[in-house]
Write a structure and sequence with these properties.
The complex is a heterodimer of chains A (410) and B (64). With 410 residues, chain A is of the alpha+beta class. Chain A is built from 18 helices and 14 strands. Chain A has a five-stranded mixed beta sheet with strand order 1-2-10-7-3. In chain A, 50% of the residues are buried. In chain B, the strands form two sheets. A two-stranded antiparallel ribbon of chain B has the order 1-4. In chain B, strands 2-3 form a two-stranded antiparallel sheet. The chains are: A alpha+beta (410), B alpha+beta (64).
């Protein structure tokens, strides 16, 4: 089992979250709920000079307004880091997540059908089988007295396996895919040259996979993207690589984080765990509540032009973090917002974003999350943190979830 | 009562389809469509209300 070494921020530790916040500080994700609550009371749109200037709205109303505003905010860069990608609007480097209207609409229509609810439902038996295979190993280790890790041995494997199969990529490269995700989403504090080098490494890998699919055509998502037409023409291979970059990266640590956070909740809230084990009919509302309370994904925008946002002088090319998880915890939108209620029936949460960039893989993510939690608690109805909160390591950056989650099973 | 989906607001979260498949279908693009003429039989009014209350985009309305 390998330990997780969280990257640090080049700007140093944060002392005041209201004026100097930094999502690259390892303390941010660990204490995110408290930080957002403080900002909601004091700001509510915070600013930090880090990363060349970054804004952080935390209310549902503000997050929603920015998500809907494609005039004043561009999606061409969505990972707040030391390096602003050069890929211009409206396409960006990983369409359609990095795309703006009008290109966005056409690009998105290409990739929506493979992720429609009915197509994704076909994956359920395979995901269930995969979960049980992982659980078999964990159960055997637990019986031998070893501590098992619900993030490292379970959550992180499920989405990467599914997307590798969908894309028709070698399953033995799964560790590599997790490295790519780590480089893009967590190593946000590299020297810009090193960050560019990390992207080039990924591009080279994707190009090799695309070349292999051209040489050996097959019926998978990569083959589909090579065949499908955009604006009446086949998609240039470099752009196919951009689409695949999104599909490969966006679906991995996001769902892995959602699974991990849900299991963290169940490990630390015995009442909820027992209730869910005894009454599986609560599973759907519980999953939606975990998505609300522990939404893993904070998106980002660049300010497209100088403008005033509710008294905040936003300058072109400043970053804006879009913390959908903070919006989900806003008491103005959700009664008892700070309580996790696994039977919450009315739950308009924004875990998968709002507006035109709604998470393309939301149906797949929901399926993976539900099946992963169902199978875990079926196998291990009784579990708790093995080393308390000290043993839990949270991710760094815009995707929030446990990267180490050692648990003791009964 | 009648149920209505605003196609401009719907972004394909598919919550309505999950909660009330008797009232909603989704197309290949994940866009929600109302099944039939949108009339909600009394036994499905509660589900229709849930669909309204769970739509992240405020795209669904229920009217008399």
């Amino acid at each position: 089992m390998t330990g997780y070494d969280a990257p640090k921020s080049i700007y140093g530790p944060v002392s005041d979250w209201t004026t100097d916040f930094d999502h690259g500080d390892p303390e941010y994700n660990r204490h995110a709920h408290a930080i957002w609550a403080e900002l909601r009371d004091k700001c509510p749109v915070a600013h930090s000079d880090r990363y060349g200037g970054t804004w952080l709205p935390v209310t549902h109303e503000h997050v929603r307004e920015i998500a809907y505003d494609t005039e004043n905010f561009t999606s061409r860069a969505v990972v707040v880091s030391t390096e602003v990608p050069l890929d211009p609007a409206p396409i960006g480097g990983a369409p359609p997540i990095t795309s703006d209207p009008p290109f966005h609409h056409e690009a998105r229509r290409i990739v929506l059908p493979p992720f429609s609810p009915k197509k994704i439902a076909e994956w359920e038996p395979e995901i269930r089988r995969m979960c049980n295979e992982l659980l078999d190993t964990m159960e055997a280790e637990a019986k031998n007295g070893l501590t098992i890790d619900a993030a490292i041995q379970y959550a992180q494997h499920i989405p990467v396996n599914v997307i590798a199969r969908m894309l028709g990529f070698p399953l033995e490269d799964q560790d590599l895919f997790r490295e790519f995700v780590h480089d893009i989403l967590e190593n946000i504090n590299l020297d810009p040259q090193d960050r560019i080098a990390a992207f080039e490494r990924i591009d080279a890998y994707l190009k090799a996979q695309i070349d292999d699919h051209i040489a050996n055509p097959r019926d998978d998502l990569t083959g589909y993207l090579l065949d499908v037409e955009l604006f009446g023409e086949k998609i240039p291979h470099e752009l196919v690589g951009g689409f695949i970059l999104l599909l490969l990266v966006a679906g991995i640590d996001t769902t892995w984080s959602a699974i991990g956070s849900s299991l963290w909740h169940l490990a630390t809230h015995a009442d909820d765990r027992r209730r869910l084990v005894n009454d599986p009919s609560l599973m759907n509302t519980a999953i939606e509540e975990f998505l609300r309370a522990y939404a893993p994904v904070t998106m980002a925008r660049l300010v497209a032009k100088d403008h005033d946002f509710h008294g905040c002088p936003m300058k072109k090319d400043e970053w804006v973090l879009l913390p959908f998880p903070a919006a989900n915890l806003d008491p103005a939108e959700f009664p008892d917002a700070d309580k996790v209620l696994i039977d919450r029936a009315e739950n308009r949460h924004a875990a998968f974003g709002l507006g035109i960039h709604r998470c393309l893989g939301s149906n797949l993510a929901r399926l993976e999350l539900r099946v992963a939690v169902e199978e875990f608690i079926k196998r291990f109805p009784d579990f708790e943190l093995a080393h308390g909160e000290e043993g839990v390591v949270w991710s760094v950056g815009q995707i929030r979830g446990p990267r180490q989650l050692p648990v003791r099973v009964a | 009562m009648r149920i209505h989906v605003d196609a401009e607001k719907c972004q394909g979260h598919n919550r309505c389809y999950a909660l009330a498949p008797e009232l909603f279908d989704v197309d290949d693009y994940g866009q929600a469509v109302v099944i039939g003429d949108g009339n909600v039989p009394p036994e499905l009014v509660e589900r229709a209300r849930l669909a309204v209350a769970n739509c992240p985009e405020f795209a669904i309305t229920l009217s008399d």
